[in-house]
Backbone:
């Protein structure tokens, strides 16, 4: 048996994807932290150009540069200190140079990415569907956390997701191309209509344009048939959390609550259990 044949075995493949997911989770921490800051810098440069001013000179800041470093003392993080979860435990959640506390969020994101990848590998088995599902889940994790932190859903993630779903529809990986195209259009237009209806009635913006694009991406991946489930599940979860925050955390009603995390979670539900849940719902009707 060749090494490739060993890797694709059902008893081995999920474990390999667990390790891959842990490593990707470490990179997702970088994306979640840096991508909004990169967007902010780009906007400032564009504004300076519109004012015909010279953009401010700054250190190169991308997803790859500069090297990861402690936010408290700027101590560079070595390769050994970047090992997912293990380095956090070995350092006892503290910077090796200054002793500053390292947030538990970093290993939690790594663990979430790792276990989600392993479950996708186990659920779909070796093949395009498993790798596509892992990519989808990684994007959902990044989008959910970025929206939670900044109330932004970057086009650099949502738009490639839309096109990726449509391309997968060519081969019928999750749904056929017709369902994917209708799903993308219906996903965008449904929240777009809610947005404008709410704005005309209240004069306020109830959600951002990024939410439209994220639902369009979910529709492209899983077809228009999954949109009612995704909208209902995300709206219900958002309502429960919002009411709980107002009742128990004294959250002000005029302070917006990001909708992206609930859409992302509903998208993950649709990926794994969308069809049986939809069939069960239709049987009840």
Residues:
């Amino acid at each position: 048996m060749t090494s490739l044949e060993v890797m694709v075995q059902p008893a081995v493949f999920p474990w390999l994807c667990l390790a891959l997911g842990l490593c990707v989770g470490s990179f997702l921490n970088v994306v979640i932290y840096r991508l909004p800051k990169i967007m902010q810098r780009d906007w400032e440069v564009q504004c300076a150009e519109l004012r015909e001013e010279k953009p401010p000179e700054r250190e190169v800041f991308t997803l790859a540069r500069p090297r990861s470093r402690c936010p408290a003392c700027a101590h560079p993080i070595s390769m050994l200190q970047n090992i997912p979860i293990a380095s956090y435990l070995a350092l006892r959640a503290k910077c090796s140079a200054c002793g500053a506390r390292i947030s538990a969020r970093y290993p939690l994101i790594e663990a979430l990415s790792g276990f989600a990848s392993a479950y996708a590998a186990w659920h779909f088995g070796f093949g395009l569907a498993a790798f596509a599902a892992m990519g989808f889940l990684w994007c959902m994790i990044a989008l959910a956390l970025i929206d939670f932190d900044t109330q932004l859903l970057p086009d650099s993630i949502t738009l490639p997701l839309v096109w990726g779903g449509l391309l997968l529809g060519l081969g019928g990986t999750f749904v056929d191309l017709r369902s994917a195209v209708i799903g993308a259009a219906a996903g965008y237009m449904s929240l777009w209509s809610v947005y404008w209806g709410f704005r005309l009635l209240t004069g306020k913006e109830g959600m951002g344009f990024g939410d439209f694009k994220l639902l369009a991406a979910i529709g492209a991946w899983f077809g228009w048939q999954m949109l009612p489930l995704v909208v209902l599940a995300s709206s219900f979860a958002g309502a429960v959390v919002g009411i709980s925050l107002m009742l128990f955390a004294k959250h002000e009603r005029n302070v917006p609550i990001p909708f992206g995390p609930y859409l992302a979670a509903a998208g993950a539900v649709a990926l794994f259990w969308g069809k049986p849940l939809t069939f069960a719902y239709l049987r009840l009707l």
